[in-house]
Amino acid sequence: MKEVDADLSALDRGIINAFQGGFPVTTRPFDAAAAALRERGLTVTGSALCERVRELDESGVLSRFGALVNAEEIGGAASLVAMHAPEDRFDEVVETVNDFTEVAHNYEREHPHLNVWFVVSVADHPEPDKDGHDRVREVLEEIEAATGQETYNLPKLREFHVGAKFLVDGPVPDGDIDLSGLAPDVDIADRATLTPAERDLVVEIQGGLPITETPYADVAATLDADVGWVIETIERFRQEGKVRRVGVIPNHYALGYTENGMTVWDVPEDRLDEVGPVVADLDFVTHCYQRPRHEGVWEYNFFAMTHGRTETESERRVTEVKETMADYWDVGPDDWDTLFSTRILKKTGIRIGERADSNTA
User: What is the predicted pLDDT for the residue at 6?
Assistant: First the structure.
């Protein structure tokens, strides 16, 4: 694996590889995490590990540390949307789209027509007979009216994989340390809504945990809650899917993963059940979904996101996806495409607070 550009020590590399998931949800998590690293040949104490994670976060190597909240399980809805922005109005159209607070991320991508791709994130609809997807459609109508451009709604129909892990050269190269078993035993809640206390916890941890030797106790102190309840609830959220994973979230650009390729495929409907899980198992595929087609404009129904550190590496990974696909159906030259991002037009956090509010009872 090629060396990344960031100036990382062996300990830094071990941290990044080991703890993109599976970080312990227990009273003093850094002590347990340090012990696991010592077993892999990295001499470090819990306090030193905590300090180094904090420094990596402050320097921008990490985007954040903590629980990665799954907004879709918290409340509301989100959808990927494509649009054409004419060259002579590109900046004007993008500025108008970005002015909508419901637009969380926006990228310019290489495509002869659909060159603007953004995510709309909304709370549940205030009317009881409608849901978040109805609200997404309303927002898109507003965007179309404001820009004069048609939007193409591409909601997720099926999720095959979400697990963006970015490994680097160094210790724990397989990223296989999992200390989630140190968390307490919990009972899964038989309800979709959040309690007010759970809503407050979600809002508190959505941007990351405090990088201290007792992060869960610090969250509990902020909320005036019991630390045992905080630990048990975060672990229950992890098992229920409200939290995807707990650990360090790398800034993949700082690690050299600058080639962001959205591969799209026109997969026969009767092959999706086979193809989806197999492509999702490729370790460099970070997101993998089924999405709807738009006849005459967008013929693809399967999305697999890849990241690479060079153009050559990205091309090699796209080729591997294609070769995997070819084991299940006859992939023609018009059956797929890769849309590389050329510019980040907007990147803000998903509005989890509002989405949680709308699902609190």
Answer: 56
pLDDT bucket at 306, cuts 50 / 70 / 90: confident
Do residue 31 and residue 108 come from a single domain? no
Number of domains in the chain: 2
**CATH (domain of 260):** 3.30.70.3460
**Which residues are CB-neighbours of 39 under 8 A, at least 6 positions away?**
none
Count Cβ neighbours within 10 Å for each residue of 146-175 and write b for 16 or more, e otherwise. ebebebbbbbbeeebbbebbbbbebbbeeb
Instruction: Kindly report, residue by residue over 225-245, the tens digit of the pLDDT.
Output: 999 999 999 999 999 999 999
* Neighbour count for residue 59 (Cβ, 10 Å): 13
Q: What are the distances in angstroms from CA 240 to CA 4, 192, 197, 251?
A: 35, 10, 17, 26
Please state, in angstroms and rounded to a whole number, the distance separating the CA atoms of residues 294 and 271. Answer: 19
Q: Does 361 map to a domain?
A: no
Q: Are 288 and 238 a contacting pair, CB within 8 Å?
A: no
Neighbours of 207 (CB within 10 A): 11
**pTM of the prediction?**
0.85
Q: Span 314-321, mean pLDDT? A: 89
- Give the lowest-confidence range in 5-19, 46-60, 171-185, 304-318: 304-318
Q: What is the pLDDT of residue 2?
A: 40
